[in-house]
Write a structure and sequence with these properties.
The structure is a homodimer of 362-residue chains. Chain A is α+β, with helices and mostly antiparallel strands and 362 residues long. In chain A, 27% of the residues lie in helices and 29% in strands. The first copy, chain A, has eleven helices and 17 strands. In chain A, the strands form three sheets. In chain A, strands 9, 10, 11, 12, 13, 14, 15, 16 and 17 form a nine-stranded antiparallel sheet that branches. Chains A and B meet through helix 1, strand 16 and strand 17 of A and helix 1, strand 16 and strand 17 of B.
């Protein structure tokens, strides 16, 4: 594996997962002269249209992963629920970035919280909950409103239940399928922000300006840049992201979501070892997008400067909201991105748009 | 063909030609949710990697063009030397934008100049030249230094010879192959500018800010935005572009190159009925790039606002200049684009980069 990096133009990058994130990374890879080979169970996945080759197989199909390894110079992934073990096996025959350890940490909310607390990063108070009795104890222990979440496979608000302080929660554990869970104390936060950061193969670090995020029903609705935080909070958020990346010997882009408490404290909500929905604005408001930044990192190129040239508000188009596309196309200063998905099911991310405006000083 | 437009997301656009322009349009089409089917004689052409399908055939292969028509909702092209007749035949079975008439005008320098002069647009003085005797007469007639160019198939300075006022030019006509030619008087211009403009299916018009261009050996070296021209010149250049587009009932993006004379007059040098090298900066400095603008027009979407958010200097990477890529990747404010071509032959466009800076008032 020596002298493989930086990848020369014309090299191929393997992408596990072919959703919209893979699709946008395929465009970014092409800009840098690279080809992309996508592995996804769905031959009609959004990234397939832009891939130079597609391998249609399950994410844990070891034979298919080996075939992918034979076609490319490095492998990355576009979502955090790729099974860890096959990816770890793959990493023994070809470089895989971000490292499988990052997947392992991000896939299990208990492991994630323990990892963060273990390196001195604050989170909401939490307890691991494996059965209804543990839930009772944890609920009393934490006090106040809480959120019960499955440890694994949650995304976009799925696998979560809010437990009110004085309400019955007897059914809650079984309601999430009776699987190992985590109870998190609900934090009265002032705002949610995220930092999209990157670490290069040389250990260099770069972070885009924090975005201020609004969720609805657990799905990101909008990201506004700059976030209404102080310079000190901005720096603190970037420092936290950097300590996470360094600890994981990470290579690539990560999304780190924070609650900003009413006292101004930063608590990490979760980390996503991949490009992140709250970083889509970078394509409209920065010279180097998060997608190019990730490709640069996994290809062993220098990280790009993350400065923004414009302020931005990104909004997701979820389900039938994609019908707004035609009117958005007529608006000045709007970059619209559609994901090429044929069916606009409720809750499905169909596209997004970013409204840019001249850069403010913040 | 009624109600075909605007193309719905998921529709396919046919692209005749699979070079870097087609490649960049494939990315832009994907952003808008469209697929692209590329027809090119070279299966390994730059656009093939981003196309959802590639038809490997000659540009004038009527059977292959018919196959393309069967796969897509509209056809466009990425270079002006596509043979007109097969494209005209194609346009009888499927919408083709820009219209074949634009190809016809742009492919022959005599037809082009006559068209421009015919709608009141100034060019350098010129004479059609079909044999050495006509060259003698034209040379005396025009007076001063001249440029002899083949009428057809010239690009990037190929098929041209400078004839000095007092030097022998006996070999010049045969030197270009003895083909029909045009003699153009050499204009002592102050600068060269270009306007990248678009016309929508509804007749709407939009022009990006003029670029100031520097050529070397007939190949574009750099484009600087804003160009050092007065507001009146800028407006005049856009008005000229609009009159060309309207006259051609054009749909799509066009590049119009101008000489700015020492007296400030604008003379059109040539038009290119496609996205244009001197418009590559739009991807780095505008919310809507020339590539997206072209896709919007051919898909029947509203044209995007062409305002720039940044100033820009675009430089081509020609032949071995592509070796600069690694150092450019380390520069802040630089967007680098490589075309995925394996071999860096002299004179071959391998990529480009755009340096952006905060927008000036001009």
């Amino acid at each position: 594996m020596t002298n493989r990096f930086p990848l020369p133009p014309g090299a191929a990058i393997g992408m596990i997962g072919g959703g919209q994130l893979g699709r946008m990374m395929a465009s970014a890879a092409a800009r840098l002269g690279y080809r992309m080979v996508v592995l996804d169970p769905d031959a009609g996945c959004p990234a397939a249209q832009l891939a130079s080759e597609t391998i249609t197989a399950a994410y844990d199909d070891r034979e298919a992963l080996a075939r992918l390894a034979g076609r490319v110079s490095v492998v990355t992934y576009e979502f955090e629920n790729v099974p860890v073990e096959p990816v770890r096996a793959l990493s023994r025959i070809i470089p895989v970035f971000p490292p499988p350890e990052a997947l392992e940490v991000a896939q299990d909310r208990v492991v994630e919280k323990a990892f963060l607390n273990g390196i001195g990063i604050r989170t909401a108070p939490w307890r691991a909950v494996d059965d209804p009795q543990e839930l009772d104890h944890a609920f009393l222990d934490l006090g106040g409103d809480c959120i019960l979440k499955t440890r694994r496979l949650g995304y976009d608000g799925k696998g979560q239940a809010v437990l009110r302080e004085n309400a019955s929660h007897g059914e809650a554990f079984d309601g999430l399928g009776g699987v190992p869970a985590i109870l998190e104390k609900k934090i009265p936060f002032e705002r949610e922000i995220s930092v999209i950061a990157a670490r290069g193969q040389d250990g260099s670090f770069a972070a885009f300006d924090p975005a201020e995020n609004v969720h609805g029903l657990g799905i990101l609705k909008s990201s506004t840049i700059p976030a209404a935080v102080s310079p000190e909070q901005r720096q603190a958020a970037c420092d936290i992201a950097q300590s996470i990346l360094d600890k994981l010997t990470y290579v690539g882009v990560i999304g780190v979501e924070f609650f900003v408490g009413k006292d101004g404290a930063l608590l990490v909500n979760e980390i996503a070892p991949r490009v992140h929905n709250s970083g889509h604005w970078t394509e409209a408001a920065c010279t180097i997008s998060q997608f190019e930044q990730h490709i640069r990192a996994v290809a062993g190129l220098p990280l790009g400067n993350p400065a923004r040239h414009s302020d931005a508000v990104m909004e997701n188009l979820i389900g039938s909201e994609v019908d707004r596309a035609s009117s958005l196309l007529g608006e000045a200063g709007v970059m619209l991105t559609l994901y090429g998905k044929s069916e606009a099911r409720p809750g499905r991310k169909m596209g997004h748009f970013t409204r840019v405006s001249p850069r403010s000083e913040a």
